[in-house]
């Protein structure tokens, strides 16, 4: 499905407000097959909300989301309606990885990766187990299949969570600050796994504070400010020569990050 | 006051008590099953997003949690048949009173368990395409129920002791039989002491084994 350059996800005039607070104020974005897009922005800029609107963990207040050119939801009487059935079907095609892993504590690692395949995709147990083992191998955790999540390190948990999402054969993967809850020495293994996925041609949308990852792995960087895209482009342009003062301030805030010369 | 203990008449009448004990165990099994499984349904409804489901469940819980079981049993036995014309025997009256009360209490336990599960678990289920029901059944309930198991076993113990209330409508259980023995042999002290001892002897090992069970469950965390 992931032919390079075909449109996978499109977001059109997306708005989201929580009560009086307008978190997203009209976002337009297209993500193509095999692309890795990194969303940057300070906290409160709306980057996580944008990501969560793509798979409808949050319901957009206005605007449309398209997967493979097909609009999600049906318009009736000027309002867009989303049925649980449509959204569930959509979410099986969009993988998501969370900041706090959210592994199922009562299941082994293998069962975690099998669960969606068996319960949602109705795959047979042996097929699901085979797929699960293949995906665990892909994230380097084949030998942990029979462990419970409580016995794993944060980095290992996050790689299991990645395998769990991959096992559904998604068209696109969403990463929501997946290294923010990790000890610094565990961040690397997760970023390495993500980089490997990007190199294998997975379509990825990544919210992160890891500017190094954005610089080296992203095809495109989007900088969000107050719910709108302020700058976007290739990472070596946007990160090295930001046009806006706001983005320059943001980059200077990450004082530890030194761009290679 | 001096009392010379004499359990001979109790031992002689053991078959009478034995019938009562069987009645106790039987009504316990029926009420604990109905109460804890019905409570699960009510507890899930108490947590439902739709007010049309939540509201009746809340009313049910409040009515049966805030009225005495003894009164409910008497009401079902004496008042309900007159109001509806439906015959209610002692067993049914006691089962209704005890089960409905247990449903109300355990519903709150289940609801607390469900509410204690982190939002991230719901999101993780949702993110792999699970429906609300699938997430509830596969992800939330197994962990929630394990978490509230000590509270549920406590309820179970309560239900076992509550079964003595069935004696008020003369359902054949341990206390009812002891009253019979006491009336015939003029030995209420021994008869009721025997009832207390019987309950202790049955419950104590059960309670101990629940501790073992809880420890075993904690190990898999």
Any overview of this molecule?
The complex is a heterodimer of chains A (261) and B (221). Chain A is α/β, with parallel strands linked by helices and 261 residues long. Chain A has two domains: 1-93 and 171-261, Rossmann fold; 102-169, no CATH class. Chain A is built from nine helices and twelve strands. Chain A has helices at 47-54, 84-92, 109-119, 125-138, 154-166, 184-199, 211-217, 235-238, 245-253; strands at 7-18, 21-32, 36-40, 62-67, 70-71, 74-76, 79-81, 94-97, 172-176, 204-207, 220-225, 228-233. In chain A, a hairpin with a 2-residue loop joins strand 11 (220-225) and strand 12. In chain A, helix 4 packs across helix 5 (154-166). Chain A is globular and about 50 Å long. Chain B has 221 residues and is an all-alpha fold. Chain B has a single domain (11-219), classed as MetI-like fold. The model of chain B has no long low-confidence stretch (mean pLDDT 94). The interface between A and B is medium-sized, with 29 and 20 residues.
Number of strands of chain A: 12
The separation of the N and C termini of chain A measures 37 Å
**Helical content band of chain B:** over 70%
The DSSP helix count of chain B reads 9
* Helical run tally of chain A: 9
Biggest sheet architecture of chain B: none
Q: Report the CATH topology name of chain B.
A: MetI-like fold
Mean pLDDT of chain B equals 94
Largest interface: A-B, 29 and 20 residues
CATH superfamily of chain B, please? MetI-like
